[in-house]
Design a protein that fits this description.
By secondary structure, this protein is an alpha+beta fold. The protein has 13 helices and five strands. α5 packs antiparallel against α10. A hairpin with a 3-residue loop joins β2 and β3. It has a five-stranded antiparallel β-sheet with strand order 1-5-4-3-2, with helices on one face. The N terminus is likely disordered.
């Protein structure tokens, strides 16, 4: 009897600390059914499974070299949590959050367009509602009225415009530009405002200083800390405002 093919295992090393439940939980809440999932132990995407195996590495089962690269981006494995934490703790208001939940990481994107579309879908609605819409879109496999129904017409047109623009210009959702240029290019698209652009910059373009300051949840978390002018306070957190945003979201 022929033996079943062995699954390839790859160690994905990182600099600790690494809070597996925090980042995997973030991804689980936004998982597209049938595409990705998290069972509490492993994150799965197609034939790839990823889990925590040691204090300084994840293990990826199956997949390719390109999948390993995607996984490193998705779990923000190339971040320097010690340096980021030390910088953000200079602000006494963040220090209390980071003592409870140290070393936040910014979840990336396995598929850039997928997360960029989600950023538009998620405008002014809950995470659960946005996830339900994303499930409908990806299982329909198209962006017609039937799949996109239930959203404002302007938002539907914004999604179609983003998809078309990304198809015409592959560099639109590619990392490598500065934050200001990235935001300018994204907000030049109809229907993409600063919040959406900064969210895409955080997760897709890997901009560590992106900061969607108008986000209602961020403002709620900031108010709980006594911060009245969030954007002004965030000047202290540069160049890691994206990590500060994760810390604030996690505090809710």
């Amino acid at each position: 009897m022929a033996r079943a093919p062995e699954r390839r295992e790859v160690a994905l090393e990182f600099t600790p600390p690494f809070r597996w439940q925090a980042i995997a939980g973030f991804l689980a809440a936004r998982a597209i059914a049938g595409v990705e999932s998290f069972d509490g132990t492993r994150y799965r995407r197609g034939s790839v499974a990823i889990g925590l195996c040691a204090t300084n590495a994840l293990t990826m089962f199956g997949g390719s070299v390109d999948d390993a690269r995607r996984a490193r981006v998705l779990f923000d494995l190339d971040a320097d949590p010690i340096a980021i934490d030390a910088h953000l703790r200079r602000d006494p208001l963040l220090r209390s959050l980071l003592k409870k939940r140290p070393a936040p990481r910014v979840p990336g994107a396995w598929e850039p367009l997928e997360v960029a579309v989600r950023a538009i879908v998620g405008q002014q609605i809950s995470v659960a509602h946005a996830t339900a819409i994303m499930n409908r879109l990806f299982h329909a496999g198209r962006f017609d009225d039937a799949a996109l129904g239930g959203m404002p017409r302007a938002r539907i047109e914004s999604i179609r415009n983003l998809v078309a623009s990304a198809a015409e210009d592959s560099s639109l959702l590619a990392a490598g530009r500065g934050l200001d240029e990235s935001i300018d290019r994204l907000t030049a698209l109809k229907g993409v405002g600063p919040w959406t652009a900064h969210y895409i910059a955080m997760r897709v373009l890997r901009q560590s200083d992106a900061f969607p300051h108008s986000d209602l949840a961020l403002r709620k978390a900031a108010a709980a800390l006594g911060i009245d002018d969030l954007l002004a306070r965030a000047e202290r957190w540069r160049p890691y405002r994206a990590y500060a945003a994760i810390a604030l979201w996690e505090s809710l």
